[in-house]
Amino acid sequence: MGCFIKFSSPAILFMFLSLLLIPTSAHVQVNEGGYISAVISKKGLDFFKNYLINKATSSIIPLELPDIEKSKKIPLIGKVHMALSNIIIYSVEIDSSYVETGDPDLLLAVSGATADCGMNWEYSYGSWLLPTISDSGAATVLVEGLEVGLTVSLKEQGGIVKVILVDCGSHVRDISIKVDGGASWLYQALFEAFEGKIKSAVESAVTKKISELITKLDSIFQSLPKQIPVSDIASMNTSFVRSPVLSDSSVEVEINGLFTAISGTSMLNYYHKGFESSASCSSPAKMIGIQLNENVFSSGALVYFNANRLHWIIDDIPEKSVLNTSGWRHIIPQLYTQYPNDGMNLYISVTSPPKIHVSEHDIGGTIDLDMTINVLDSSEVIPVACISLKSKEITWPVSLD
Ligand SMILES: *[C@@H]1O[C@H](CO)[C@@H](O)[C@H](O)[C@H]1NC(C)=O
Ligand SMILES: *[C@@H]1O[C@H](CO)[C@@H](O)[C@H](O)[C@H]1NC(C)=O
Q1: What is the reported pTM?
Q2: Where is the signal peptide (predicted)?
Q3: What is the structure's pLDDT at 282?
Q4: Which domains does the chain have, with CATH numbers?
Q5: Which of 105, 141, 153, 242 could form a cystine bridge with 117, CB 3.0-4.6 A?
Q6: Most informative mutation of 31, 254, 256, 270 for ligand 1 (most atoms within 8 A of CB)
Q7: How far is the C-alpha of 85 from the C-alpha of 66, rounded, in Å?
């Protein structure tokens, strides 16, 4: 009968989705009441890291550094006042980066990055004897061997994960300056006067930008909903139940995952525990493995049952004569005699909260149904038969491919 049901109501869609989702094989783990857990593998973390670095570099660029000034004694010339302004990093090239799951924090490092910088220079010198001499122009700076490392901690707090920057450092190995125009002594003078200052300006600008980015990332996490409505009556509790567990180059997160009625009835007592044995996707090819406890399905089914949504009318099937008394003329002549050529429908209702069980190889359910056969005589609906289906346990085999 199932194949005639149209996926028109969210309740049906939910039931069928429940059956399509595939459980994964198990390894035992203690748990604190989460019913959905996800393991982000090394591959997933790498993907996330690359995404973050791309986002970070594109949001950092162009990065303006503060102006720098300095007076310096130059042989044969005297004391020269020099200033750099409009110092802007306009591109960053990253050579390699890696992410590592420490205990308890997440480490991210970028090494061998290069950055291109543009700036304006000017200088002036003179004495009471000579008129002031000044000049100005542009220069480019190549920053080489830029290393950045940061340590981030992920902590669950009131159902939400906080992203905390524990440590962040940056180091510049080398810079080289290319001066357009200017006097012949200028390159060496600029380099000597400003090498250290440019390096530390780049380092502190990068560190500052990264801590701003982590704050931004944290506020994105803070704005994640703790409940996601899935239909007009049910929502899923997406609260984190504990801090992400970092191990083995992977991150495991666990959310409550139970369905609750939007009207607010809490059903926590209905379920004793989360995963008795929790699953993990062992295939390294996957970026993320998600496992669902059977209580996720059962809680959803209970919400729809309590909201009186687990009933359906089937009135349109390909074989039209089955839902017309004329089709039953020879089998149940009395029906046809009493209601000639009338349409019929089937009303199916679930009579107790369905229980769904998930095991390694199959998904099973216990669903009690009442099926009523109605005749539609003009505007009247006349029940002519009722069948109670008490299913003990229906199972659907699941393949793990
Ligand atoms: C959602 O899950 C969290 C964590 O398990 C729990 O503390 C909270 O009470 C749940 N919220 C509702 C509405 O059930
Ligand atoms: C039932 O079938 C008869 C004979 O095919 C047809 O005349 C009649 O319109 C059908 N009734 C409905 C409600 O479709």
Answers
A1: 0.71
A2: 1-26
A3: 52
A4: 10-41+250-397 (3.15.20.10), 48-222 (3.15.10.10)
A5: 141
A6: 256
A7: 7
